[in-house]
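Its record is set out here:
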Amino acid sequence: MLCHRGTKSAFDLYWIVTHNDYRGYGIGRSLLQETEKKVKEMGGTALYAETSSREKYISTRMFYRKNVFTEVARIKDFYDTGDDKIIYVRQLV
């Protein structure tokens, strides 16, 4: 988990990583909750995350949607032809 303050009150979430053997146990959600708590303590009101549109990242996109992130942007062919960059936001207020 890594979070960086990028603006006055919006933060970038770079990644949350859980070993494949431990997915589905709520570890990622717990890490996200702790991150959100710290961001709020620092005056954060929004948390941004980005990922790839490749099939390999379906579970990542599902995680963000399940945790109330909304897709706000899609940059076509950002990573490669047919591999879009998807940006999500979660409002913390």
